[in-house]
Design a protein that fits this description.
Elements: H1 3-29, H2 33-43, H3 48-61, H4 64-77, H5 83-111, H6 118-131
Helix pairs in contact: 2-3, 3-4, 4-5, 5-6
């Protein structure tokens, strides 16, 4: 083999190593939906779609506070196309409210075991159910 062939082979191997390392590093980012969208938010903090998608990822896992924060950020960045963002924000608030309401009902029901407060507790339970 002549010298140019060795140089071509060395260059090709160098490119394979560079691209292989880059692909490996990107695979770490693509490991989960959270890591992917978190990386995109870090690289493009002024775009609304990454915030919406990271919020969706958090919502799926039940991290409602983080989801709400990212939905609000997306709305601040681009309020012109708000339908999906406001809808997602509303659904997250609704789920959070239902969770809180369930905690309230559980606490009130626990308190209903106290006979002295029973009439008041029954009234509170009935108003809470109608409020929800």
């Amino acid at each position: 083999m002549n010298l140019t062939r060795y140089i071509e082979l060395a260059a090709l191997m160098g490119l394979v190593m560079v691209f292989g390392t880059t692909a490996y590093q990107r695979n770490i980012v693509w490991k989960t939906e959270d890591t992917l969208w978190s990386d995109i938010v870090k690289k493009s903090p002024d775009k609304d779609r990454p915030h919406v998608n990271l919020g969706n990822s958090y919502f799926k896992k039940g991290f409602l506070n983080q989801a709400i924060a990212h939905y609000k950020t997306a709305i601040k960045i681009n309020p012109i196309q708000p339908y999906a963002k406001y809808y997602n924000l509303g659904v997250a608030y609704e789920k959070k409210a239902c969770s809180i309401m369930q905690q309230v009902l559980t606490s009130v029901r626990s308190a209903s075991s106290l006979t002295f407060w029973k009439p008041l507790i029954i009234w509170e339970i009935s108003t809470l159910k109608w409020a929800g």
